[in-house]
Amino acid sequence: MSDSAHPVVHPAPTTFIRKWVFSTDHKIIGIQYYFLALIAVFTGLALSVLMRLRLAWPAESWPWLEKIFPLGFEGGVMSPEFYLAMLTMHGTIMVFFVLTTAPQGGFGNYFLPIQIGAHDMAFPVLNMLSFWVTFLSMGVMFAAFFVAGGAPISGWTAYAPLSALGEVAGPGLGSGQDLWIISIALFCVASLLGALNFITTVLNMRAKGMSLMKMPLTVWTWFTTAILALLSFPVLLAAGILLLLDRIGGTSFFIPAGLVVSDTVIESSGGSPILWQHLFWFFGHPEVYIAILPGMGVTSQLLATFARKPVFGYHAMVVAIFAIGMLGFFVWGHHMFVSGLSPFSALVFSILTLAIGVPSAIKTFNWLGTLWGGKIRLTTAMLFAIGFVSLFVSGGITGLFLGQTSVDVQLHDTYFPVAHFHMIMGVAAIFGILGATYYWFPKMFGRMLHEGLGKLHFWLTFAGVNAIFIPMHLMGIMGQLRRYAESTEFKFMEPLQPYQEFVTIAVFVTAAAQLLFLVNFFWGMFKGKKATENPWEATTLEWITASPPPHDNFGGRELVVHHGAYEYGVPGAPRDYVMQTDPPLESGK
Amino acid sequence: MPVAIAPPEVKPPTDKGDLVPESGGPGGGSGSDRRSDRWGDGGGRRLRPDSYQLGMWLALASISMMFIGFSSAYILGQGTNSQWRAMAAPPFVWINTVILLASSLSLELARRAAVASELKRWMTVTCLLGAAFLVGQLWIWRLLADQGIYLSGNPHSSFFYLLTGVHGVHLLGGVAGLAYLTARAWSSAARIPARASLNVTALYWHFMDGLWIYLLVLLFFWR
């Protein structure tokens, strides 16, 4: 009995709970992830606006903010501890609940099965669990704002021993830190469930004819990202368990002997704070690629679609994606150049780090090669894809500075790395998400977004982020230290205050521009122009089905894939694009 | 892929025709033969036979990474912490190891069982052995605590509690899975577990077995 002979019939769930809440439909789960990330990103943005207020006008009093945050804004001025709490939560929320969640959980969930011609994920129930555990994790994280002592102040990296000691080390390091660890542990579990589902789906659920080398590059990036998540999150989980035991079990895995905090000797049997850094960054560096790789896939997809050309060097792109992913596991030490690494291992980490420049350059070259001579259609999605390339270059090039031990010693803990990672891991990844949103919105919601509003959003955002982060690079070179709520107390940082004010104003403008996006998004959902099946004249499988797709994605159709993912402008083809399921062309290929 | 043993006497139409031997050939039956799908995504899922196996291997890769994380912490602590005092292995650990190995053996016997009654018997034995191991672990912890060896004591004892504890939690999940399959095998109305789920559980169980041996070597022989 062959199971592929029959078209698959999928009865759609009928009850509200099964259809929209505890849904096993990967499309609904994708949208759930997307909205979770949307809530998280605006929360994280609000926190950064508060921080910028403090940095630009440290002496200013904001009595109305005291009404909202009576503990953090005593006398209308943000306390340095509250600043650190904002910093910790901004980083944590953005890295975990936005950059990890939206590109992979959101778009990956929605489009990976469709793009390989599957009717769902390999394990739909696991998929549902994965979302709800993420949801729970976010709830626990947000709860940290409201417990006694408030949110933790140890940064998104939760460096030990600060994070391991409990309340004695500072406000927020009591229950707030506990909740932080529990939330991250839950997040790890959710990501693992998601990752094994993604990998199994790609390996086992592809439609007939969808060979690995016919897969869209988006699928390749989601697949590689899933491998990274599968192998790096468990190490963070292990670190989290050790940290929690240090806090509540009386162990001292990360607490060094003879530590004195606030005139109290901390009892310890001689742990190692550096161990936390090793374990954390073994996860933390792959995490950077978990955030950015899907954006690279989306960029390739968008550049090809809107330049009406095949992706230049598809195979090289696949190899580069994998190379970046795998090298990402061997460079964690570059976060620890000043933590006390042996010079030899620092050298090894440095060389491996710089080696990532090679596949990155291959990707950039190929993106430019894709654009070269194309019939470029400057849609909003395309603008964001080109913006991604721009940010990837300007954010990536500074990685070469920081990857060298001697330069890093000077720049470590200044605004320079802050600007670097925001540019590449933060903003470039966000541009990937936004590009994907403008591109796939018609498919997801059946309606078009407003192009004019979208373009305005793009230009304001693009100008805004550069206005924020270019000055921050300069401030870093001039010695501005990161994590300080107030830099005016230090003579050498005083002349940089005008920069702080400029950056804060740029943040206001950029943040306000995101409201345009929100308006466009919700207007588009209900009032946008109805979308056709294939509004962008693209080639991949999601564009052969209705917008939005039916419950089983292809309405019971059995797909046979004959073409690569990006066959644009093929000589002899009837149109300037050949969809993946189009019959083979007459003239051989 | 393990060869399913489907004895002729069970194969013909029978009231409990649900003893589902894996339809051996490649491209044969689907791994998920659940007819009713409680989650409403239809029964027509086109899982290739090895999806569950693949998913389990991936899960095991990820569990391995977690224990590699712990191991690196262990080796670092052992090498650099001057307060490190290795404790001797509690003798009962060896008995417990034998119990765990026996459970793997009985699970294999269940997996190779030719008839339903045999399968039920060996599944039950496996469950009991698994539970006995866990109880034994708790007992070992009690014994150590009586001797004044706690989680918060010496780094080595911290690691002992940590590693056996995390392993125990994973094993608890395995026992739950086995118990579920055994219960399904015993209840006359329900179907005897599908081969696919039995194979996947066995894979997990044997892995936990191997992991246990690895942990013992790390804790008591790695110097």
Distance between the termini of chain B: 38 Å
**Unreliable segments of chain A (pLDDT under 50, ≥5 consecutive)?**
1-9
- Largest sheet: spatial strand order of chain A: 1-2
The counted number of beta strands of chain B is: 0
Low-confidence stretches of chain B: 1-47
The shape of chain A, in one word, is globular
Q: What would the average pLDDT of chain A be, to the nearest integer?
A: 94
What is the number of domains of chain B? 1
CATH domain fold name of chain B: Four Helix Bundle (Hemerythrin (Met), subunit A)
Mean pLDDT of chain B: 80
Helix content of chain A: 55-70%
Overall description:
By secondary structure, chain A is mainly α. Chain A contains 17 helices and four strands. In chain A, the strands form two sheets. A two-stranded antiparallel ribbon of chain A has the order 1-2. The longest helix of chain A is centred in the middle third of the chain and has 35 residues, at 273-307. Chain A starts with 15 loop residues before the first helix and ends in an 11-residue tail after the last strand. Chain B is mostly helical and 223 residues long. Chain B has a single domain (51-82, 90-221), classed as Four Helix Bundle (Hemerythrin (Met), subunit A) (Up-down Bundle), CATH 1.20.120. In chain B, 63% of the residues lie in helices and 0% in strands. Chain B is built from five helices and no strands. Chain B has helices at 51-80, 92-111, 116-146, 155-186, 195-221. In chain B, helix 2 packs antiparallel against helix 3. Chain B is elongated, with a radius of gyration of 21 Å. Chain B starts with 50 loop residues before the first helix and ends with a helix. The chains are: A mainly alpha (589), B mainly alpha (223). Chains A and B meet through helix 6, helix 7, helix 8 and helix 9 of A and helix 1 and helix 4 of B.
